[in-house]
User: Which sequence fits this backbone?
């Protein structure tokens, strides 16, 4: 069983039902419209540009209907959808493009400058532009209009066929391409619809970037699988998105803690009527209980917390409306068609209820591994179990609470920031002996980076100088917000003891 027919089958069932409202163009697409576009895209790439099964096709752009063309069109010809993070610099993207070697790259107008830098590092065989991103280049809309709208003949496909590659940062500082197969896309949709109670009447806004698993798979694919409607925004603005939730009568809304804080602070929040909303759900990072209480007290809404990973799917737990109140702080119980274990990360032994251990996940929603990286794949997936690197606790009733992270990273505004990558840039400075990144609680972003820098004897550098070094080397969200100077504590094995640094420098006084 594969996922190449998800959109075509739904279009056959409800061809004239509205599937997508693209806010920035004002265009509303039916399921038949979306499927026609996906067919045209698939035929265009195969017939004109020779894209074959297994070839990668990348996009570097802000949210638009083109992402859905690729998401649903490429699987029809066995090609692999590879969206690129436009928040990264051209230098950072060069490594990813070299790693996945896309046959075709589609570039949006907002990413023209980044693409210009990327081009100086690596070439892509075919570049297609959206909205005139590169004058004189092949134009996406013109090419799509000329392509056949017929359903393309399917190559041999099954559940293990790669569907998409999504790049996540690695603890070594190098991004890793998580390979998501057809079965993962299909079972994420099935389990989310069933476990979360989604129906054809649900409407969900998507304003998170579609290069992220959250934007693609938290609600977009499950809602379209069920026959509901998506409201797609190019980006996020607190007032605009609040207005859309109300005017489009959205029923299920995903956000990260930063987004919920920004909505709460927006003037439009006070008068917003959420009577049509079934539930809000926060993911990406733990949501402060105080913020959840503030929402529920002010608006009387159902507010849930979710948990997921690119590698195992964005929706791994569920709970009822009542449980979201009585189990505040919990992410719920495992979704259907999924298995969970909590183990001692050192011994691998299963742990009893109430004990915190590493969360392991197994099921048809687990990825194939990492693109071209068998070592990382073998480390992450052992005997069919995916090792999340996250610490969790299970109570006697089967409810899970995420305790922390074994992986050395922080989450800022829902984005993963891996310490090794940021520390490596600071160490490039001649005056720096070593550097260690830790998280500082922040009222807007959940947490931000705090870099502790140890200078070489006689070395001189200030915070501004070191932060300037990061420009062009790191995406803006990865650059630490705070820099302090001091000695670093080391273990007998030469590792920085970050627990001591947190005790020394981190304050939990969020204002």
Assistant:
């Amino acid at each position: 069983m594969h996922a190449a027919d998800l959109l075509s089958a739904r279009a056959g069932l409800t061809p004239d039902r509205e599937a997508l409202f693209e806010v920035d163009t004002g265009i509303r697409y039916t399921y038949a419209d979306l499927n026609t576009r996906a067919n045209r895209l698939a035929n265009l790439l195969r017939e004109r540009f020779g894209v074959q099964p297994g070839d990668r096709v990348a996009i570097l752009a802000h949210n638009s209907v083109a992402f859905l063309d690729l998401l649903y069109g490429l699987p029809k010809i066995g090609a692999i959808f590879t969206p690129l993070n436009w928040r990264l610099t051209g230098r950072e993207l060069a490594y990813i493009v070299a790693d996945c070697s896309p046959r075709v790259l589609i570039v949006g107008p907002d990413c023209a400058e980044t693409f210009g830098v990327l081009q100086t590092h690596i070439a892509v065989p075919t570049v297609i532009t959206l909205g005139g991103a590169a004058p004189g280049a092949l134009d996406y809309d013109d090419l799509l209009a000329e392509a056949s709208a017929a359903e393309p003949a399917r190559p041999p496909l099954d559940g293990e066929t790669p569907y998409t590659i999504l790049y996540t940062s690695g603890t070594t500082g190098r991004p890793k391409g998580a390979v998501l197969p057809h079965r993962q896309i299909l079972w994420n949709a099935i389990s989310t619809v069933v476990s979360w109670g989604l129906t054809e009447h649900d409407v969900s806004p998507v304003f998170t970037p579609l290069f992220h698993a959250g934007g693609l798979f938290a609600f977009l694919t499950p809602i379209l699988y069920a026959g509901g409607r998506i409201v797609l925004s190019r980006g996020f603005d607190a007032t605009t998105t609040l207005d859309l939730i109300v005017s489009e009568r959205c029923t299920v809304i995903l956000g990260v803690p930063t987004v919920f804080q920004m909505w709460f602070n927006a003037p439009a929040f006070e008068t917003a009527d959420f009577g049509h909303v079934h539930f809000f759900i926060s993911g990406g990072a733990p949501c402060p209980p105080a913020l959840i209480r503030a929402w529920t007290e002010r608006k009387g809404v159902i507010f849930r917390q979710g948990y997921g990973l690119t590698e195992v799917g964005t929706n791994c737990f569920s709970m009822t409306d009542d449980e979201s109140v009585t189990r505040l702080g919990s992410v719920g119980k495992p979704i259907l068609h999924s298995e969970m274990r909590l183990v001692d990360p050192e011994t691998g032994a299963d742990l009893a209820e109430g004990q915190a251990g590493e969360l392991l996940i197994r099921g048809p929603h687990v990825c194939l591994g990492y693109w071209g990286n068998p070592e990382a794949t073998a480390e992450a997936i052992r005997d069919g179990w995916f090792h999340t690197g996250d610490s969790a606790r299970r109570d006697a009733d089967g409810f899970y609470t995420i305790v922390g992270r074994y992986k050395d990273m922080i989450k800022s505004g829902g984005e993963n920031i891996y310490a090794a990558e940021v520390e490596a840039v600071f160490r490039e400075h001649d005056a720096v002996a070593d550097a260690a990144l830790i998280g500082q609680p922040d009222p807007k972003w959940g947490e931000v980076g705090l870099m502790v820098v140890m200078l070489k004897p006689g070395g001189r550098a200030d915070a501004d100088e070191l932060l300037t070094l990061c420009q062009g080397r790191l995406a803006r969200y990865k650059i630490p917000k705070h820099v302090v100077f001091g000695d670093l504590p080391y273990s007998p094995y030469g590792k920085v003891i970050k627990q001591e640094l947190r005790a020394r420098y981190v304050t939990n006084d969020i204002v």
DSSP finds 17 helices and 27 strands in the chain. The domain at 409-505 is CATH 3.30.300.30 (GMP Synthetase; Chain A, domain 3). The chain has a mean pLDDT of 92. Residues 454 and 486 are 5 Å apart (CA to CA).
